[in-house]
Every structure is written in structure tokens, then in C-alpha cells.
């Protein structure tokens, strides 16, 4: 990746923090509703907000995204509200948003299947002479699925502009990522002839710049790319997963101490990029999401 910008502007910083805070608030309300039995299942994105918001914002609004099932913060960036996001998990609908309007396809619970959908979509776009970049989100565990090998190979052979965004949160349910593969995820992509990067996401701004670089590479070359975002899953795999049974207490304590949302909030506050008034407005926004969610599912 060359010619990376070295900083993000203040508006981008504020927007990133706003999306991260709203995603955290919506996620927390969904957890509460699930605890009350109003939502059947929830797969929290807690801890992954920086990776998701930074990548989604770097990708921009025009690109079609194929998500997995945990990209709630990406959905928030795409303008999907808490009610739309949770409706599927409350058994109300197959998809709580308009995939075409938001350019955000329905969640796929069949691990890795969306990678083939994304590559097929990109090929179809080219056949329609509408060549455009397509983005697909997947997890570390998904990269061991045969579908991902097929998708990466097809994308490379067809030379279509698909950006694979892999959130490596360290776990595929209870299987740690270091036990899932002998090579790194980025190396796997290179084996298929796909340019790849592996970046940390503790700093959302750095993650944003790296993702913007990956996006530019895919857009300008018209070829696939893969960016591995190293992140942390703070909660269990799902609301049915007692993750403290298989996770080390020190790992969980470190995750809580390095919470990307709290750290970024503190950083922008002490730098004067945001102030208490600005944060209070975001709190009101979160409350509005929560109220609407309780109204829709809470009784
Ligand atoms: C084809 C398929 N195999 C297995 C499962 C069961 N399953 C659901 S999530 C998951 C782990 C996926 O891990 P990862 O790709 O790292 O994503 P994460 O949940 O960590 O976001 C598995 C094995 C499934 N839903 N679909
Ligand atoms: Mg994972």
C-alpha cells in the first residue's frame, strides 16, 4: 500500500466515534432484550466496533456490502436503525432493511456463503458493464470453509474488484484462531494470487487509513484484495455461548481494559475533538434507538 494519507480529518473522527457509540448502544439494548426473552438470539459485535466502523467508513456509501452476521456497526454506518437490525433476531422477518437502498445485503448465517455471493455479484456487474467494487465481510473461522477458497480463487481468476474484509476476532465460536490455520489469513489470500494486508484495529484512525488504502488498490487495479482486521470479540460467540468456560480470565480482562469505544471516546474528548455537549447529543440518539427497540420488541 503506497501513498497512505497520514491522518483523518476532524469530521471523520467525530463520525467514527458517533457510529461506534451508537453501535455499542444498539448492541447493548439488543443484549438486554435477549436477556428478557424478547429477542431469540443475538451475536454481539462488542469489541469489534472500531474494525467495523473504520472499514465501513473507508469503503464509502456507494459500494455494495455482503455482510456475515455480526456486522451491526457496519449496518449502523449504512443508516440501518436498531429496530431494523434486531427484527430478524426477534423472528419478525428474514431481513429488517432494504438491501438495495442501503447497499447492504441480508445477513448470512451459513458461514462463508456470502463470499461466493459477493464474487458472483461482482461478475454479474461486470457482465452488465457496471464494473464496481464489492465488499464482503467474513470471520477468521470462515476462511477455513471451502466456499472461501472457491470465492478467492474465482475472484483472482476472474480479476474482479472484490475486497474481502476479514475480521479476525481470535475465535470461531470456541476454536482459537491460532488453532484454525498454520499460515496467516493474509498469506492464504496470497496463495490465490490476491494482494493482502493484515492490520491492527485498536486505533480506529489507523485502521481507517489502511482500509482506505486497500479500497483504493482494489478500485484502481480492478482486482481483488483481502484485508485482515485484527480485533477482539469481547462477548461470547452468541447469547447462547458461555464463553467464560473456555476463555482465559486474563484475556477477557485485557479486552475490557482495551475497549476500543471507551479508548477512542477518551482520546477525542481529551484532544478537544468532541466535548460533553456533543456526547450528550449522541446519548440522546442512543436513547431514541433504545426506546424504539423496546417499543418494537419489548412487549
Ligand atoms: C456452513 C456452516 N458451518 C458451521 C456453522 C456453525 N457456525 C456458526 S458461526 C461459526 C464460527 C464462525 O467463526 P468466524 O468466521 O471466525 O466468525 P465470528 O463468529 O467469530 O464472527 C460456526 C462454525 C454455520 N453457521 N455454517
Ligand atoms: Mg472469529
UniProtKB/TrEMBL annotation:
Its EC number is 1.2.4.4. InterPro entries: Alpha-ketoacid_DH_E1_comp, DH_E1, THDP-binding. It catalyses: N(6)-[(R)-lipoyl]-L-lysyl-[protein] + 3-methyl-2-oxobutanoate + H(+) = N(6)-[(R)-S(8)-2-methylpropanoyldihydrolipoyl]-L-lysyl-[protein] + CO2. It comes from the Bacteria. Transmembrane segments: none annotated. Pfam families: E1_dh. Belongs to the BCKDHA family. This is 2-oxoisovalerate dehydrogenase subunit alpha. It comes from Mycolicibacterium obuense. The lineage of its organism: Bacteria, Bacillati, Actinomycetota, Actinomycetes, Mycobacteriales.
